[in-house]
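Handout, page 2. Input:
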Amino acid sequence: MQAACNSGNPEKRQQKLKELKAKEADIKQQIEALEHELGSSDSASAVRGKMVVVTEMKEQPFIHYVEVQGAVSGDQDVIVSAQAMGSVTSVLVKTGDKIIRGQLMATIDDRIIRQSMESVQVQYNLAKTIYDRQKNLWDQQIGSEIQFLNAKTQKESLEKQLAALQDQLDLTRIKSPIDGTVDQVNVKAGQTVSPGIPVFRVVNLEELKVKAEVAESHINTVKQGNQVTLIFPDMNKEIQTRLDYSGKAINTLNRSFNVEVHLKKSDGVFYPNQVVVVKIADYHNNSAFVIPVSAVQKTGDGEFVFISEPAGNKTYTARHKKIITGRSYNGKVEVLSGITNGDLIITFGNQNLVEGDLINF
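Output:
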């Protein structure tokens, strides 16, 4: 039985081989046809020239920007700390509350101070009574001047003690130094606070500005009044405005200077520490030739671009033209000389060109 199976296998394999050879011949014919077709196409391309993209030159505005990251800040953005050490007895505001300057925000345990004030107040009441009587007597020229002066001194001394204790009592009252909104509450009743530790943060959202730092190298071109574009990435919002302040003091740590732009109510609603991209226009040319940076090539003799020139019979050739470039920004460069109105600059497909190549566009 096994022998019978084996004896049938060679015939099947022969048949399979014939089928594969037939397919191979067909595939070869298809390959030859495609190669011939592609060869004809390449020949036509060679006649037509290399494919490029050209741009006709026309004068247009060119603006160079200094781009830095800034943040929204408040002219009145205050961290409020306790002025005395002690345990907080009450917190009278919460995040988001509108408050006014001098409004009580929290209290600190003042029992010891009050007890001292009560004791001194009793002494003061007695001293004042004695003083009043001594003064009446002294006004009538009765009694000695020493008794009157001692009574006066005692009364005034206790007055000063009461005033000092009142000042200490005031220190146990945490109050807002500005009008604004409570942005942070970092304390709860029962917690111990001390001077210098942040307890509240109060922000006046009515007066906000954008602050940024610009590198020292731009200090002669970035000036108050320059055009500014503020970009708020998280809000998908842009604002066109002017630079309100440009500092002249250089930060020795990072060699930069501060710039500021004030935000108006009409600009929208913003929040302290919000990230802002600040684009400051430090150079403006109203009539410039502008081309992509990629269109410019360099040699030992300087910079050049390829332009398209008619070669007759509706054909065009690439010719290089020397230029002098100025500033560049965002992939574009300003051409200071070497280009005239109407020049057809090759802006794409220029990398593999040589002088005199046939081109097509």
